[in-house]
Amino acid sequence: MQRRTLLSALAAAGATTAAPWAAAQSVWPDQPLRWVVPYPAGGGTDVLARTVAEAMRQTLGQQIVVDNRPGASTNIGGQMVATAKPDGNTFMSADNAILAYNEHLFTKLPFNPEKDFTYVGGISRFPLALVVHPAFEAKTVKEFLAYARANPGKLNYASPGNGSPHHLAMEMFKNRTKTFLTHIPYRGAAPALQDVMGGQVPCMFLDLAAGLPVITSGKVRALAIGSAKRVAALPDVPTLAEAGVPNTEVFAFQGILAPAGLPAAITARLNGDLNKALLNPAVVKRMADFGMEALPGTPEQFRAMARSESKRWGEIIKAAGVKLD
Q1: 3-class DSSP state for residue 203?
Q2: How far apart are CA 144 and CA 132, in angstroms?
Q3: Residue 145, domain extent
Q4: The domain that contains 211 carries what CATH number?
Q5: Among residues 209, 225, 241, which one ends one of the domains?
Q6: Which of residues 206, 225, 244 is at a domain's end?
Q7: Is the CB of residue 90 less than 8 Å from the CB of residue 66?
């Protein structure tokens, strides 16, 4: 009888302890939410986050405050979210850097991308294109490779900086084609693109989010697209595979991460509202303006994609010997 009474008391105590947390989940969200963007305000990632946040506000019924925390190749924002309370009130935009690159580029990270986050869902992806100055003599990828092989080490390429998707895309291209080009890193995409348009540097890999307008206006010429299929906005530009460079898909992608330990019910709610937002007309238009493809799906699909990309890019980073510390 005493044992039965003790078990009943323990069960009652457990129910009392769990009740506030269960109640909190049932009314979530009950306060404004914080969306950390690990880049400065005004950039493509920031604009997209604010657009998606507004669409999610309409279904979540709470304000979403975008908090820009740039620095350290997105590691500052990543650490902030990795160490936040897993209550659903803090999450972040995460792209190739946190999801696929940084664990291979840095000897030490302030978080473990596999263990310290809850993967909520994908937002978008967009391919990178191999572009050249309009006056550059190569008109096709085949001619570009012939020029590079005839001038080993003399062909320069621009990027927004070491470890950027643009830099690593060219490293993969070099790896697949067995060519050597010299990297000229810039402090950001704008000055890198400006010098390619001006002819100071002949080529680069350029993301379509920033590059579509300058490609369609003829300020640079796209030789190939790093996607599995051609993009509707550039129907005459072949994929890298069509141009003779298979197994070279190069794209940037984004999704939402939250702290590890986020309750399953909140994860499912965030994922559902994110997927609804990707159908919102304002979000659809913004993505079309950026040349982006929506990336809806489950948390499990997003996590699997991110870990697969990490493995793929880890091999390229190791082969190229790229380090950021």
Answers
A1: strand
A2: 9
A3: 127-225
A4: 3.40.190.10
A5: 225
A6: 225
A7: no
From residue 98, give the alpha-carbon distance in Å to each of 42, 124, 220: 20, 15, 30
Q: Is residue 12 one of the residues assigned to a domain?
A: no
Query: H-helix or E-strand containing 90?
Result: strand 90-95
Q: Count of CB atoms within 10 A of residue 86's CB?
A: 18
- Rounded Cα distance, 180 and 270, in Å: 45
Q: Are 159 and 185 in contact (CB under 8 A)?
A: yes
202 and 138 part of one domain: yes
Question: Which residues share a beta bridge with 95?
Answer: 254
Per-residue pLDDT of the chain (325 residues; tens, 9 = 90+): 444 444 444 444 444 444 444 444 468 999 999 999 999 898 889 999 999 999 999 999 999 999 999 999 999 999 999 999 999 999 999 999 999 999 999 999 999 999 999 999 999 998 999 999 999 999 999 999 999 999 988 899 999 999 999 999 999 999 999 999 999 999 888 899 999 999 999 999 999 888 889 999 999 999 999 999 998 889 999 999 999 999 999 999 999 999 999 999 999 999 999 999 999 999 998 888 888 889 999 999 999 999 999 999 999 999 999 999 8
Which amino acid, 315? E
> What is the CA 17 to chain-centroid distance, rounded?
39
Write out the two tokens for 37. Answer: 């963007």
Q: Helix or strand or coil: residue 214?
A: helix
| 196-208 CB burial, b ≥16 within 10 A, e <16 | bbeeebbbbbbbb
| Contact assessment for residue 102 and residue 109, using Cβ atoms and an 8 Å cutoff | yes
